[in-house]
Design brief:
single chain; about 60 residues; alpha+beta; 3 helices; 2 strands; about 45% helix
Length: about 60
């Protein structure tokens, strides 16, 4: 993922599926499943993005 000196990973509003896979350290089907179950999917035309803040919150909630 590209970030400049002024952008941290915490400030990113949306990521594509490839970046989400890297963030979650999993494959594409699992990343899509987690993102969908979290309700973090953003559809703009044919482009699909994911809200990482919602995914982090979802993972925190389902963790024991």
């Amino acid at each position: 993922m590209r970030t400049d000196n002024n952008t941290s990973i915490d400030n990113i509003l949306a990521v594509n599926t490839a970046v989400l896979m890297k963030m979650l350290n999993c494959g594409k089907p699992t990343a899509i499943k987690i993102g969908t179950e979290a309700g973090a999917k953003i559809v703009i035309g044919r482009k699909i993005l994911w809200n990482p803040r919602i995914i982090r919150r979802y993972l925190d909630d389902i963790s024991e």
